């Protein structure tokens, strides 16, 4: 079997790969950023209307409503990544946008929670949009320049995050929770039209077929295990429903690993993953999971007044905008810097910087940031730099270690790690808070001990992530990304070893 990290190859003449910013490149980047704005409307925007959704569907399953799209994204990713390599990244991206837009319409019109969750599952296809935009950049740009552009498109959508809390607050007050899904479907439709009309189709394709049975089995296994993590806290870790998800998911993963991953063209060649790529994926799953869990905690802290005497809380004038607006700038800055630094020293070092920042922010948050808004804002900004750096560097690492004809497949693995880390750590954090609840004014609330335990868990995950990061930096030492003009076949073969 081919090693997924077999090197950097190109099927196109060097003249057609962009090496710097031009009007055409700016136009392509703007459209790909629009795609990722749509992804944000699927993943993040519904969190602003969770109470309204709870009332509309008479349910308290906040976590399931919030995480269903990310769970579905982990299921969609392997199938869409392999399909993109075979049938073309632009074609699959357009289909992905149309499916996600349809999901938004289903959510908009859903009469029952089960139909709403089905819509969220369809919307989950949008998660693939992020890694497909990265794969398209790798087809259009020379290797070094592609790292910079990747930083711009993966973090540029954060600009939308600066204004979205304020816009959505006004819009939902005027039109209700459904406006969130109107916007999501509209962004999906616009992005599909622009991608079809402006983004060129890729010449880098891999002859073969999509192992649909393997993709569905792998995706179903991931969904089963993640659903157990999602529902175990609510229904009990040993309840029949929870165990059914776990057993079914583990069984599907075993069937895929033992049988279906050995077919001539598996959806993911797991045995061909190099040590460098494996270490990078491990860093991404731990680092992004820890960051996402802290983002969830900030939402809790903003709702609690420090004068309540609980030992935590940062509610106050402008707290929501400061905690969720300024960090959007940090995500954009972290992504752009990670791409720029990666062109000079490789993607492993900015990945390491992101982990270091996350661990430092966790320490500061633990010691002084749970009841002081200025400190919490600084920590939130540091975490956002971490997020931008980790996502951009994770995709850049995959781009460096995979040839163009397998960019979709390998980039999808990064997205699966982001989804797994996000869902797992969010629910671990929820379980920690649930185990430390106290009664305050007749209601159950999180205790100060629970809040600090939550931060400690996230900090420990960052510290543990430093271990594979160290070995990754050692493994990648001396392997600088070549410019397209510097690439020869001999160099390419050497780069994959």
Automatic annotation (TrEMBL):
Q: What is its main location?
A: membrane
Query: What is one Pfam family matched by this protein?
Result: MFS_1
The signal peptide here is: none
How would you describe this protein's topology in the membrane? Answer: Multi-pass membrane protein
Q: Does the keyword Membrane apply?
A: yes
The UniProt keywords, alphabetically, are:
Membrane, Transmembrane, Transmembrane helix
Q: InterPro entries, from UniProt? A: MFS (IPR011701), MFS_dom (IPR020846), MFS_trans_sf (IPR036259)
The UniProt transmembrane annotation reads 29-50, 62-80, 92-111, 117-138, 145-168, 174-198, 210-231, 237-260, 272-294, 314-341, 348-369, 375-398, 410-433, 453-473
> Where, subcellularly, is it found?
Cell membrane
Gene3D superfamilies per the record? MFS general substrate transporter like domains (1.20.1250.20)
Protein's UniProt name: MFS transporter
Name the species this protein comes from: Streptomyces thermoalcalitolerans
């Amino acid at each position: 079997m081919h090693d997924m990290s077999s090197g950097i190859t190109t099927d196109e003449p060097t003249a057609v790969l962009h090496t710097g910013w031009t009007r055409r490149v700016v136009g392509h980047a703007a459209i790909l950023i629009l795609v990722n704005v749509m992804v944000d409307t699927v993943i993040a925007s519904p969190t602003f209307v969770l109470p309204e959704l709870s009332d509309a569907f008479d349910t308290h399953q906040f976590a399931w409503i919030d995480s269903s799209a990310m769970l579905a994204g982990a299921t969609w990713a392997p199938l869409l990544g392999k399909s993109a390599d075979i049938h073309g990244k632009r074609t699959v991206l357009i289909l992905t946008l149309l499916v996600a837009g349809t999901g938004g319409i289903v959510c908009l019109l859903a009469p029952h929670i089960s139909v709403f969750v089905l819509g969220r599952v369809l919307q989950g296809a949008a998660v693939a949009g992020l890694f497909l935009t990265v794969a398209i950049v790798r087809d259009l740009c020379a290797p070094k320049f592609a790292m910079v552009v990747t930083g711009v498109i993966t973090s540029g959508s954060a600009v939308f995050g600066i204004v979205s809390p304020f816009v959505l607050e006004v819009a939902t007050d005027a039109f209700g929770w459904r406006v969130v899904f109107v916007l999501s479907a509209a962004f999906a439709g616009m992005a599909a039209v622009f991608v079809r009309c402006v983004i060129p189709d890729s010449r880098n394709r891999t002859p073969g077929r999509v192992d649909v049975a393997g993709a569905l089995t792998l995706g179903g296994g991931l969904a089963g295990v993640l659903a157990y993590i999602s529902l175990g806290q609510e229904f009990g870790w040993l309840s029949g429903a929870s165990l059914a998800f776990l057993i079914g998911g583990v069984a599907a993963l075993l069937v895929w690993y033992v049988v279906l991953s050995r077919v001539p063209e598996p959806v993911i060649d797991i045995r061909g993953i190099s040590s460098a790529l494996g270490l990078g994926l491990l860093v991404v799953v731990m680092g992004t999971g820890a960051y996402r869990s802290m983002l969830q905690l900030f939402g809790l802290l903003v709702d609690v007044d420090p004068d309540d005497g609980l030992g935590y809380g940062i509610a106050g004038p402008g707290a929501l905008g400061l905690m969720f607006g300024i960090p959007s700038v940090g995500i954009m800055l972290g992504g752009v810097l990670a791409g720029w630094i990666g062109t000079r020293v490789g993607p492993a070092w900015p990945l390491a910087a992101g982990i270091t920042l996350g661990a430092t922010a966790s320490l500061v948050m633990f010691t002084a940031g749970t009841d002081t808004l200025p400190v919490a804002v600084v920590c939130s900004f540091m975490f956002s730099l971490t997020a931008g750096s980790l996502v951009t560097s994770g995709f850049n690492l995959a781009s460096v270690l995979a040839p163009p004809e397998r960019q979709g497949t390998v980039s999808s693995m990064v997205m699966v790690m982001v989804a797994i880390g996000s869902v797992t750590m969010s629910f671990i954090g929820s379980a920690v808070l649930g185990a430390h609840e106290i009664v305050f004014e007749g209601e159950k609330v999180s205790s100060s001990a629970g809040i600090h335990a939550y931060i400690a868990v996230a900090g420990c995950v960052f510290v543990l992530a430093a271990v594979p990061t160290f070995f990754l930096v050692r493994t990648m030492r001396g392997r600088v990304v070549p410019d397209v003009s510097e690439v020869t076949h001999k160099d390419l073969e050497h780069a994959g070893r």
